[in-house]
Amino acid sequence: MLKRTPLYNAHIAMGARMVEFGGWEMPVQYRGIIEEHHAVRNRAGLFDISHMGRFMVRGPQAEHFLQRMVTCDVHAIPLGQASYGLLCRPDGGIIDDVFLYHLPDEFMVVVNAANRAKDWDWFQQHIDGFEVEIEDRSDRWAMLALQGPQAEHLLAGAEDSTTADIGSLPFHGVAMTTIFGQNALIARTGYTGEDGFEIFFEATHAERFWYGLLALGGNAVQACGLGARDSLRFEACLALYGHEIDETTNPYEARLGWVVKLDKGDFIGREALQAIKQTGVSRRLIGFEMVGKGIARAGYQVQRLNGEPVGFVTSGMPSPTLGRPLGMAYVPTDLSSEGSEFDIIVRERPVRARVVKMPFYKPRYKR
Amino acid sequence: MAYKTPADLRYAKTHEWVRQEGEEVVIGITDYAQHALGDVVYIELPAVGSTITAGESFGIVESVKASSDLYAPVSGEVVAVNTALESDQAPINSDPYGAGWMLRVRPSGESVELLDAEEYAAFVAEIEH
Q1: Chain B residue with minimum CA distance to A12
Q2: Cβ of B42 and A318 within 8 Å?
Q3: Where do the structural domains in chain A lie, given as residue ranges?
Q4: What φ, ψ does residue B90 adopt, rounded to 5°?
Q5: CA of A34 vs chain B CAs: smallest distance (Å)
Q6: Nearest to A3 by CA among A47, A46, A45, A52
Q7: pLDDT in tens, A207-228
Q8: Can you tell me the distance from the alpha carbon of A49 to that of A225, in angstroms, rounded to the nearest whole number?
Q9: What are the sequence ranges of the domains in chain B?
Q10: Is A266 left (phi over 0), alpha (psi -120 to 50) or beta?
Q11: Which of B34, B63, B65 to mutate to test the interface with A (most CBs of A within 10 A)?
């Protein structure tokens, strides 16, 4: 039985096409991926992302515990700010990529839907000796993302108190506010390459928030499914767990070295990651464009021009914003510089591809 | 979800439709197929004069989300191709049984199992359940 978010009925009522994702029955699109994609780039789109996990970590040693669990520097996250981090295995393989929100008296850790159980177990396995309590608030709270250049202006219209001024919330800032008369946590975070917000609140109010946010600005907000979420994050070259990163990839080859703070003190995976950094990586995640005709998709094989298989595509699609097929792939470091060419096996035929700059679409965050 | 399944067409279980027009047949993909694919952004079709074989791939359609084979419902020689689709794929989604047609074929006899509209609608309902 697939799990459903508190907005399942709303998605069905709106005619969404539902698909399985990470054990969840989720909307992949409402009006069409391309239309939803452009709505977020040009105006504003709303995503139900309640399937993601939300763990609350509190207690006298909450920061100390998380500092051991993640690669980023938790001590350096000021109260009211969020930070991207990685959970790594002792060998440096990536267990999950997460967002940590520093709230008064606690941290909220947002994890990938498919990794909820795995991450929870991972935390529990390492909790001994720490004065820490972890609460799984994933089912009690819903989570929406309002993304796009008009998100700030529209959301300000829904905020009915002066407890937080959405306009003054900095990039990756997080604050309590009141929206539609209900308490909500808002953060200037997202997964689209646009300015925008993620909103957390009691699941019982899910439909109130969903329909209320869609109605903002005279129905100016487009409901968006996981299809557009994927194409938007793809253009911004944001990693998707299970594609660009998994337990067999390390942060350095995934170009996430900036998330690893080796000098912050000990954490799980530090020794291995230090060694990887010293020796250097043998392969690297790159972005590519197609020189020949065809569209590369996740899992397609990469080979040298002499036919030797050397890597694989992690994500690939026709980019709605740039209007041409692009992709990301792991290739040996000698093929990873801009302009390098290789072949991708598209439908049993080698098709030429060329390394291009990442990200494909330069994020327009408000800093 | 109700999909259009015109009564005068026959349908392959791989979601292509066939319309008999005199000695020739016209081939395209069904309303259900275009809906499942999402917005088509790229298509590859065979050339006029080539032959297609029932049950085998004759081309591909690509959407943002996926790449899908087009399967030949009948064997035969391609006598016309809707080349307009190469620059504008929108009709595949907006008018799959009309402007979204793909090939005109002179059939040589073989075909895959073809369903009538009612059978195909039931088949799709079962997939969707």
Answers
A1: B1
A2: yes
A3: 8-50+139-235, 54-136, 282-356
A4: -55, -40
A5: 7
A6: A52
A7: 999 999 999 999 999 999 999 9
A8: 9
A9: 11-109
A10: beta
A11: B65
In CATH terms, is domain A54-136 a member of 3.30.70.1400? yes
User: Which chain A residue lies closest to B69 (C-alpha atoms)?
Assistant: A347
pLDDT in tens, A243-277: 999 999 999 999 999 999 999 999 999 999 999 99
Q: What is A282-356's CATH topology?
A: Elongation Factor Tu (Ef-tu); domain 3 (2.40.30)
Please report the ipTM that was assigned to this predicted complex. 0.78
A107 near A63, Cβ under 8 Å?
yes
Give the contacts of A168 (CB within 8 A, at least 6 positions apart).
Answer: none
- DSSP structural state of residue A149: T
Q: Check B42 against A227: CB less than 8 A apart.
A: no
Q: How far is CA B117 from CA B29, B30, B93, in A?
A: 14, 11, 19
Class of domain A8-50+139-235: alpha beta
Instruction: Report how far residue A358's alpha carbon sits from residue A53's, in angstroms, rounded to the nearest whole number.
Output: 28
Identify the architecture of domain B11-109 in CATH. Answer: Beta Barrel (2.40)
User: Distances from the Cα of A132 to the Cαs of A56, A59, A61, B26, in angstroms?
Assistant: 10, 5, 6, 68
Cα–Cα distance list, B65 to A180, A238, B33, B38 (Å): 35, 17, 13, 8
Q: How confident is the model at residue A282 (pLDDT cuts 50, 70, 90)?
A: very high
Nearest-5° Cα angle at B14, B9 to B20? 25
Kindly tell me if the per-residue pLDDT of A328 is higher than 70.
Answer: yes
